[in-house]
Each structure stands twice: as C-alpha cells, then as structure tokens.
Amino acid sequence: MGRDKTPVTAAVRQLRAEKVNFGDHPYTYEEKGGTAVSARELGVDEHCVIKTLVMEDERKNPLVILMHGDRQVSTRELARIIGVKQVSPCPPETALRHSGYQVGGTSPFGLRRPMTVYMEESIAGLDRIYINGGRRGYLVSMPPGELIRVLKPVPVSVGI
C-alpha cells in the first residue's frame, strides 16, 4: 500500500469502537493469491492467516465462515451442523452485496448486514491470528480471544 497509516475501513472502525488492540499489516496484494501470498508477504504461518468466506444456504440466507488459510471448508459438514440442506460459496458480486467488501478484502468485522459468523474451533487455540482488515492487501492481527469477544462466532469443526 505504501502508506504508514491505517486505512479507515468499516472493519477498522468497528475494531476501534470495540477497543481492540490490533496490529496493521499492509502487503502487496496479488489477484487470486489468497492466504499463501499474504502469509509469505508477512512472513507468518499460513495456518494463522484466517480466511473470511461468505456463503449461503439453499434459501440464499448468507453466513460467514472463518477458516485457517491452509485448510478448506467442508460445506457438507457445515450444512449438517447448522441444519440446512446445502451451503455453498457466494459468487463475488453476491458476497460484496452481503458483506460490503470485495472478495480478497472481506473482513468479518464491519459487515454491511448482520450475518451469523461461524469459526473453525481450532482458531481459538492460536496465539495470534491475521485476518482481513477490509481491504485487499491489508490484514490486521490480534489474539483470537479478541475476535471471539467482538464477533461471538459459533465454533464449528468443518476444516478439511
């Protein structure tokens, strides 16, 4: 990003309002690079970089699932746990409409509309997480307890 100051995104505004002590981590964004690129650019383990995925059930009800960067979501298991027939990733334009963020810059903080947030339960056991701050090429870091305090995510075990 080439700037030293924190970008003011909806996510950053929520983090500040909730008095979260977070770290700023700008990096050079690469289209379709995903968490492998951000982990490499920041010099951190990809397992600690948390993806924010916007999905929906068969009735088009949106939800957010937080997953380790080096793992995938079993949508079949997630659907079973939350009691719906099917869960699938939203197309980018639908995810933008629900979250207010472009794919590649989606944060679970400062969402445009309220959505249930599910979190892979093992994320809680990490010392520090790196998660999108609401813009492509910008992550924030914090202890997972802060994310849990602010978002109150539903813990699930759906990583593969």
Task: Please give a structural write-up.
The structure is a single chain. With 160 residues, the chain is of the alpha/beta class. The protein has a single domain, classed as YbaK/aminoacyl-tRNA synthetase-associated domain (YbaK protein, Alpha-Beta Complex), CATH 3.90.960. 26% of the residues lie in helices and 27% in strands. It has five helices and eight strands. It has helices at residues 10-17, 34-42, 75-82, 92-99, 144-151, and strands at residues 23-26, 49-57, 62-68, 87-89, 116-120, 129-135, 138-142, 154-156. Strands 1, 2, 3, 4, 5, 6, 7 and 8 form an eight-stranded mixed β-sheet that branches. The longest helix is centred in the first third of the chain and has 9 residues, at 34-42. The radius of gyration is 15 Å and the shape is globular. The mean pLDDT is 95.
